[in-house]
Design brief:
five-stranded parallel beta sheet; alpha/beta; 7 helices; 39% helix
Length: 184
């Protein structure tokens, strides 16, 4: 039986790294994907200044290498600026309060990422979001639920996901607490 192929969005952080690890352990054919969304001289040092665990890889490339999975980078900087950042900049001065994270999830992470899934003949995409995507047999529909860790739940950023998208998305971290993920 052929393994199901899943593209895992990888940042190099704990959550996306453990997502890839867990799915590989479950028997999926895992392919690491990193979307370059923002890069400039001012933010370069800020992004790399987050605290790291002594054993934590610092780049998604290193994580993929350690997990022995293929890895690809895609440059989505122009799309991100055009479809997420510019929308925020246009709406905020008008008194609206756009949520860039919701738009990034809708347009980039679960828009272009799903396009890449099709382009690469994969079955699923997965991220390190703390949410649960559950098939409801009675309703014959997917349901998006909170992650079980109330301090890490990210389902509210994902409310725009449609049934067509949900059937191709895996959220393996939704059934864990962050403390368990750090241990893994």
């Amino acid at each position: 039986m052929k393994k199901k192929k899943v593209l895992v969005g990888m940042s190099g952080g704990v959550d996306s790294s453990v997502t890839a690890f867990l799915l590989k352990k479950e028997g999926y054919e895992v392919i690491g994907i990193h979307f370059e969304l923002w890069k400039d001289e001012e933010s370069e040092g800020v992004h790399n200044s987050r605290k790291k665990l002594p054993s934590e890889p610092i780049t998604p490339d290193e994580v993929a290498q350690r997990l022995e999975i293929p890895f690809f980078r895609f440059d989505f900087r122009e799309r991100f600026k055009r479809e997420v950042v510019q929308g925020f900049l246009d709406e905020f001065p008008l008194g609206f309060t756009p949520n860039p994270c919701v738009e990034c999830n809708r347009k980039i992470k679960f828009g272009y990422f799903l396009e890449k899934m099709n382009d690469m003949d994969a079955h699923f995409v997965a991220t390190g979001h703390y949410a649960r995507n559950v098939w409801n047999e009675e309703r014959r529909a997917w349901s998006l639920f909170n992650g079980i860790d109330p301090l890490k739940d990210q389902s509210y950023f994902l409310y725009t996901l449609t049934q067509e998208k949900l059937k191709h998305i895996l959220f393996p971290l939704g059934v864990y607490h962050k403390s368990e993920i750090r241990k893994i």
